[in-house]
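Sequence decides. Our protein:
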Amino acid sequence: MKKVFVLRIYLVLAIAAVSFLVGCNRDPNVRKQKYFEGGQRFYEKAKYREAAIQYANAVQIDPRFAEAHYQLAQTYLKLQQWNRAFQELARVVELQPDNFAARTDLANLLIAGRDFRNAKEHLDYLAAKQPNSPEVHVALANFNAQQDNLGVALQEMQKAIELAPNRSDSYLAMALLQMRANQADAAEANFKKAVQLDPKATNAQLALGAYFQSRNRLPDAEQQFHKAIEADPKNTDARASLVRLFMAQGRKNDAEEFLKKSKAEFPDDSVGYRMLGDFYFASGDLDKALTEYASLYQEHAKDPLVKKNYIQLLILKNKLDEARKLDDELLKSNGNDPEALVFKGQILLQQGKASEAVEALQAAIKSDPASGLAHYHLGFAFDQMGNLTRAENEWRDAIRLRPDLADAYRALAAAAVRKGDAESLAQNAEQVINSQPMSPDGYILRAVAEINRKQFPRAEQDIQKAIDLAPQSPGGYIQLGSLRLAQSKYPEAEKAYQQALDIAPSSPEALSGLINAYVAQKQIDKAVFAAQTQVAKVPNSSALHDLLGTVLFNNKKDLKAAEVELKKATQLDRNNSDAFVKLGQVQFAMGSADEAIATYEQSIKDNPREVSFYILAGELYESKKDMAKARQMYQKALDIQPDNALASNNLAYVMLEEGGNIDVALSMAQNARRSMPDSPNAADTLGWAYYQKGAYNTAIDLFKEAMKKRPDDATLNYHIGMAYLKSDQQSLARQHLERVLKINPNYAKGDDVRKALAQIRG
């Protein structure tokens, strides 16, 4: 009996122990603390993504767990996810108004975002509550520095140093402010003081090296970067700084060799073993980057960053099938992965499937509303659909979310070039320069704006800066050629364009500039020879055959030779829309409308979203009096791009000629006229719609406006003549109707003209 009793006691105790453990697992306080401690362990090991998951689990269990919100904010700061960090810090301050550390971090984020009004509210609170806090004075210094109040900023930073004279970070911040205030000697002393106080502080070491580099003390800079690497051999930022120094000196081979050796020292550090591949990508060597990442993917297939970077490179190299296969694997694992959805959108864009790309990119934004890249690519999707306004809005959203996304500024700058908006171009070029001062692109873009404004000396300075930064890049020389062309300095323009072609023989921009320089001097044979020379050097370039065909067509008037070159261009690249457009124009000029239509219909099969082909085919069908086919083509163009003014105008005219719904045609013509206020065609179509509505005087006003630009157009003379006839202005009617037959004795509506003249003569 005793044994049974003992066994029962053990059983009861075991059940109690199990119940206690289950109770602990269900206790939310225990669970949230467990997640929090897990987050701390990951955070201490610099595994910030994993830490963020743990902290997020903790606050999900207890939304009022302020300490977890604060640590989650710190993690997001480490991950540079600024919006999420801001949200978490705001929540901490809401829960704990006197959490001064959180409030200071929040103020600094607001300052970085240039929200000075809200930042000041927090700073005023902190200054009142914590007047002797060095962190508060550092924040006040940042606040004033961002508003260019450097004198006040320096005073606040000095207070921070006096309150905590042994803080390395304060001396570093002071040195950076002094650099802005052109106090280089004082800055050097404080950079060195920061390093002295904390020799292992890599940021101070690197800042001192960057200071030496900015003062052109390059051996000192190199030595300092090596010291930073010795102090912390696993710090990838130090190695990246040394690589940037090598690149600034034109020592690309040294940079490459250094990174090859460094790679072996980071067998388990993703950032470290990816540095060589990222270097190839950043320096524009996509072939080497792709080869390196293909190797990395074999060695580190489970590294999501390796896989994603590899996919991005495959997309850039137009290896879409391979990219899609890997991206599908990501989406199969997580259908809401925002980066994988962005890749999907990019792939669809390159396949010309803009509407499907929009769906994928909008899904990416839904999954991650803070994804600046998703907005950036969505802008290109809308642009491909012909909606530049929505595209620009998306690029602005991308910048709002990712102020460092220089490519979004580049996209806005390119849009400004297309619209001829020099002011917007200059503004966005400035932003590119601010984001990437060592890149030539921003200076080149700003030079374009300056040339348009005829600010030639400024343009020359920016172009020279671009050439100094990238002497082996064609971009600076191309823009120098454009400047000389604008100045009518043709021999100098030729020389600059030729320098660009010597660097990049396949550059269509450089060849186009050289051709333009010869054409401006009416040296057409030289222009043709220049194009033939480059085609011989790069025979498989669709763009170069396109340029040769263009100069043969537009300037040499050699239609047969132009057709040969343009056909070659389309064979080499079925997506070369420009070559297809010109090929059809050449064929039409040779008297073969049917062949031109066949060209455009083939190009529609290859590029089903390219609206211009539908419009061109429609115009050719109009020339053949096949109005039903013309109408069909214009309608397809509008199905793809509903706000296309030219398609609206042309469809409205066909409807008016066919006896279609006049009110619908009038509405379409009005829309076209609003979008193309300077177009004589739009004025004529709208006038013809008003004519058919019986509003003859309004029609006459529109016809008069159109005729200012095209007085010898037979159709315009016919239209205004008929409008004068209907408004009983017979003398003017007779004058214009007789002019129709004088301009074109075989005018298509000649019988109607003669009947009207007979009516006038009585």
Summary: The first helix runs from residue 2 to 26. The domain at 666-762 is CATH 1.25.40.10 (Serine Threonine Protein Phosphatase 5, Tetratricopeptide repeat). The radius of gyration is 34 Å. DSSP finds 44 helices and no strands in the chain.
